[in-house]
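Summary of Year 1 activities. Much of the first year was spent building the evaluation harness for sequence design. The harness presents a backbone, in tokenized form, and records the residue chosen at every position. We chose the following record to illustrate the format because it has been used consistently in internal testing since the harness was completed.
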């Protein structure tokens, strides 16, 4: 009975393969942790100390409800290094890397002049995904929840920064926010410096509803993405744990319209990957955010590598689109539908994509459509059922055993 559950991995942040993965090779039943939202435990508070002023803090850790392990995406990748493709279990890179503060861990001050917080925080783009994804960044029903391409300015490990300063202020119907990540890899960051700026606002009484709009510009220096590399299909040999470095920038535009029981969502992000500012020479390395050591050209030494040249032959562009609707049938019953699309233009050194369309640098697309029914059956409980169909094509199908997947999922969530 063990084999049908092979894909589940209690270390991985997502736990199960809700989305099509390179190693997806057959139908199976599996445990489905954190399907609608990440399981968290922690403490938060607000202590007023003057009129309109308060100290605030929030410390939370994401965990797997079956294994009770702290979510650790990068280490789940490392666990599958050296494992043949057809025998790998669930893994996905993540900003959650086994820390006791892997969700957030910040403190600060709120005042009439805005809110200022420091240390472990969500990126502004992750806050926007939570607010503007119709599926609320669900692992089981949203690819931009399962993957962190969107919230991490191209690389999921940068959805959160361990040493950062964030400021947010509301000015009438408008809002402004900024984030600065300081320090580098040694301070449990997956970048050596990051900057984000957000402008937005709410337009009330628009055709009887409210329109919310936000724009976010981002720059991330020496961003880290942990993955497995090292062979080309049809080979399914063990692969090397590889850290790919890049300087990433993006512009995200998001919108939401609410009118009675109906909420409409839409978003777009333009992402650019450029060569890293500080490439690593052979034999040099660093500890990633989960504590695993990676070094350039060390496949024979510890089965790791650092790729600093992935975009030397040409910068990579990436486009992410999504839209969806949420409808409240009753105050306790919601139905949600969403569509997601990625587009990768061809980049880098010229490749004959007519004869090799799944080469990694060729034009590629990804599409996903999902549907969920969510019923709040009691004050702190809701039950949900839904599915997501996902498909890769062209360059984005590079290294995949299969092109599409569907994940019918049911679950129960408890909130306190």
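For this record, the design step produced the sequence shown next.
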């Amino acid at each position: 009975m063990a084999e049908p559950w092979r894909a589940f991995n209690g270390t991985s942040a997502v736990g199960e393969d809700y989305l099509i993965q390179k190693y997806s090779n057959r139908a199976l039943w599996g445990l489905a942790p954190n399907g609608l939202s990440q399981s968290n435990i922690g403490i938060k508070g607000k202590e007023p100390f003057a009129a309109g002023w308060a100290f605030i803090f929030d410390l939370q850790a994401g965990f797997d409800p079956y294994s009770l392990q702290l979510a650790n995406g990068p280490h789940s990748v490392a666990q599958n290094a050296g494992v043949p493709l057809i025998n790998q279990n669930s893994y996905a890179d993540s900003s959650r890397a086994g820390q006791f503060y892997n969700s957030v861990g910040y403190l600060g001050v709120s005042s009439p002049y805005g809110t200022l917080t420091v240390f472990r925080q969500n990126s502004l783009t992750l806050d926007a995904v939570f607010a503007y994804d119709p599926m609320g960044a669900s692992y089981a029903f949203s690819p931009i929840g399962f993957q962190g391409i969107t919230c991490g300015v191209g690389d999921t490990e940068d959805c959160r920064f361990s040493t950062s300063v964030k400021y947010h202020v509301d000015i009438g119907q408008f809002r402004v926010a900024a984030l600065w990540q300081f320090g580098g890899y040694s301070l449990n960051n997956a970048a050596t410096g990051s900057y984000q700026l957000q402008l937005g606002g709410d337009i009330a009484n628009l055709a009887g509803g409210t329109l919310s709009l936000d724009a976010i510009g981002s720059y991330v220096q020496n961003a880290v993405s942990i993955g497995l590399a090292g062979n080309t299909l049809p080979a399914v040999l063990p692969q090397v744990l590889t850290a790919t470095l890049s300087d990433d920038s993006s512009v995200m535009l998001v919108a939401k319209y609410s009118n009675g029981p109906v909420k409409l969502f839409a978003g777009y992000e333009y992402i650019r990957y450029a060569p890293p500012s500080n490439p690593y020479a052979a034999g040099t390395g660093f500890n990633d955010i989960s504590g695993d050591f990676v070094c350039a050209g060390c496949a024979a030494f510890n089965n790791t590598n650092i790729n600093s040249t992935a975009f030397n032959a040409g910068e990579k562009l990436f486009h992410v689109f999504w839209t969806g609707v949420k409808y409240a049938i009753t105050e306790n019953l919601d139905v949600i539908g969403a569509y997601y699309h990625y587009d990768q233009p061809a980049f880098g050194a010229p490749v004959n994509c007519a004869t090799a369309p799944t080469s990694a640098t060729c034009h590629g697309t990804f599409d996903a459509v999902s549907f969920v029914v969510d019923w709040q059956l009691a004050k702190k409980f809701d039950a949900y059922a839904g599915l997501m169909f996902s498909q890769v094509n062209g360059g984005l199908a590079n290294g995949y055993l299969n092109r599409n997947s569907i994940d019918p999922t049911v679950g129960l969530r408890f909130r306190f």
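Helices lie at 73-79, 124-132, 143-146, 299-302. Quantitative recovery figures across the full test set are reported in Table 2.
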